[in-house]
Specification:
It is built from twelve helices and ten strands. By secondary structure, the chain is an alpha/beta fold. The strands form two sheets. A six-stranded mixed beta sheet has the order 1-2-10-7-8-9, with helices on both faces. Helix 6 crosses helix 8 and helix 7 packs across helix 8. The radius of gyration is 19 Å and the shape is globular.
């Protein structure tokens, strides 16, 4: 069952698989499941909230949606705007978004502008642009985004058949952390929310969480202070290790930032129970992060292949 609230605009977002992770379970001592949200229509969890935000913007008479993005928001906003017949204006930090994500936004007809600055500069400009008539901001500061994204919690409960002891996810801008917390509150459950953030927020190789000033920082910090959220700060080596491990041990190819929840669980070492890690984006969103140069060239003979395998 899909819990997204969009109707005519829907591209089938939601209802993503929840898969057991046997090797992680064995090594971490906690039953681990992976919520594969990279299997949403544009390849990331953003579609859950974007379908709702764009549908409501169209219903209110918007002519354009606008967002700042490190890539996934851009792809999602452009896609749903195209489906709704709206213009999409996307501001990205210059040189800081993965090629596949930029390609998605361009393919959907968005006006993509690269800002000579950071994500925070791009978001500031988008907020200013959204003050102009007809433009609607569809970053996660828009509460409609949170309404759509919190649907992941209801899906986890239905698929797992019970409430998990922990839900782990990346912490970039904090919108998804806020949405998951809202979904838990609505469902009447209180799992430990474990969030992984990059130690070097402005420069991390995990580009989807390369956000220096999280838009939802105040809310996330309040939840940390209240004991609802446990934040784990991760080095790029820890993020890279979890990302590689997901692909090689569990067969789940995600973009680097999407492994932050798993990296956080690995660092914390919870004492038993069940944990669900939300894997937020597909690996093809940032295929450039993979070093494919190690492929070995061989002659076209079985002997050459066997020799290479020795």
């Amino acid at each position: 069952m899909s819990y997204a609230t969009a109707s005519w605009l829907s591209l089938g977002e939601g209802s993503t698989p929840l898969v057991h992770a046997p090797r992680l379970t064995e090594s971490l001592g906690v039953e681990v499941f992976l919520k594969c949200d990279g299997l949403n229509p544009t390849g990331s969890f953003k579609d859950r909230g974007m379908a709702v935000a764009v549908e409501r913007a169209a219903a209110r008479g918007a002519r354009a949606v606008v967002c700042a993005s490190t890539g996934n928001t851009a792809a999602s906003a452009a896609t749903y705007a195209a489906r709704a017949g709206l213009e999409a204006v996307v501001l990205t930090p210059q040189g800081a978004t993965a090629t596949a994500k930029r390609a998605q936004a361009h393919a959907a007809g968005a006006r993509v502008l690269e800002v000579r600055g950071s994500f925070d500069d791009a978001l500031r400009l988008c907020r200013e642009l959204a003050q102009h008539d007809g433009y609607v901001l569809v970053n996660s500061l828009n509460p409609d985004r949170i309404d759509g994204q919190k649907s992941v919690v209801a899906e986890i409960l239905e698929q797992l058949g019970r409430a998990p002891d922990a839900i782990a996810l990346p912490y970039g801008g904090g919108g998804n952390v806020s949405a998951v917390a809202a979904g838990c509150l609505e469902a009447g459950i209180e799992p430990s929310l474990v969030v992984g953030q990059a130690a070097e927020r402005n420069t991390t190789f995990a580009s989807a969480i390369r956000i220096g000033e999280p838009a939802h920082r105040a809310n996330v910090e309040a939840m940390i202070a209240a004991g609802r959220v446990r934040a784990v700060t991760l080095s790029d080596d820890e993020l890279r290790s979890a990302w590689i491990r997901l692909g090689r041990e569990e067969g789940v190819f995600c973009e680097p930032a999407s492994a932050a929840g798993v990296a956080a669980l690995t660092t914390l070492r919870l004492d038993g129970g069940t944990a669900v890690a939300i894997v937020t984006g597909h690996g093809l969103k940032d295929a450039g992060a993979v070093d494919a140069s190690a492929a070995q060239v061989v002659e076209p003979s079985l002997e050459a292949v066997l020799e290479a395998l020795r």
